[in-house]
Amino acid sequence: MIATWLHWYMVLFFVLFGVWILKSRRCFSSIGPLIRKPSDDSPYARRLRDAITKREDLEGLPGAGMARWIGGASLAAALLAALTPIPDTLLYAIVCVVLAGTLAAAYLRLRRAGGRRIASLRARTRQAAVPAWLSALVAVAAVSPLAYIDLAPLAASLVAAAGLLIAALGDRVVHLPALLTGEDPAVEEYVDDRLRAVRSVNLFATATAPPYVFEAITFTIAVVEHQARFATIHLAAMLFALVALLVSCAWQLVQIRRAPGASDVERWAHNGV
Amino acid sequence: MSDGFVVVDPALEAPPYQQIVDQLRALIERGQLLPETVLPTVRQLAGDLGVAPNTVVRAYAELQEDGWIVSDGRRGTHVASRVPSADKRVRGRALREAVAKLVTSLRHRGYSAHEIRDELRRTLGTLTA
Question: pTM of the full predicted structure?
Fold first, then answer.
């Protein structure tokens, strides 16, 4: 009985996730929500808005296409889960692999983006964008599904691989070349710095979600459905992934809510257009 | 204090490394890049400008040779604590190079030596008037 409930819960999860991704397709290409802007009466708000719009045009990320891949995979997983005996955990792992692959394709597109380039002479440090301890926490959480290799070997390997790939993308995003056109370099540089930090932690949060969800499903199935005795390592891995997910999300929130500081505004004033 | 920016324009006659050298030198001379300011790594600057890393390596090497910047393994590359702007010999060489470049460029465009000399005199006269 509980097994049936769990199964249909997963089908519903796939449907809802797929529909949500398809409906919020702009979230992949829009960068406005990732950067907090000053109030509209601020003299710098217009410059910041312009720089954000220009940046979106330069990057040209295909939000709709990305959403179709990920949302489509999730809806296909719902269909397969409803109609075939393929294990739900394996279908979930395949959706995670599609998610990681789509994000990797977007990263490659970002690497090639841009036309005329100018460069800031400010040395960037990795630590300024994302702390090393967060990278380490996420990397460990990404491979935590391997603790479940005895229960679902293929699915655990796929989820770990997808999580690691997304975490690696989060790390690589920090090192992407700056995308400054030179029309308003100081504001463009601010947008570039903020995007570097926010995108990195967004990817970190995304990298920790699949391991936690996979482990929660597998753990529940093992305990409830098969009445199996879970090992301490299963519980520890799941809790670790949960902590990593919560910490990443909290850090993500801090980064997104960060408004331009006095030093930023001063720099914009000295580098006006 | 404003930050410095450099740009490489492929339409210019000067090679990319020279453009980087000229702009960095100008920023240091104008005081926009203060002594001891840490500069971007070769990889960062090359990536941001969309040029080959060797281009930046060559630019940094030339600036280091002239004493504008210092490369220190641990601290990275930074603006020299005592920039050579006061050094008459270096300043003289930089001026000679810049004028030679300008004259060569004008000769390539078909201007005669007389035309260039007259125009330079006229421009200097206007500037000093």
Answer: 0.80
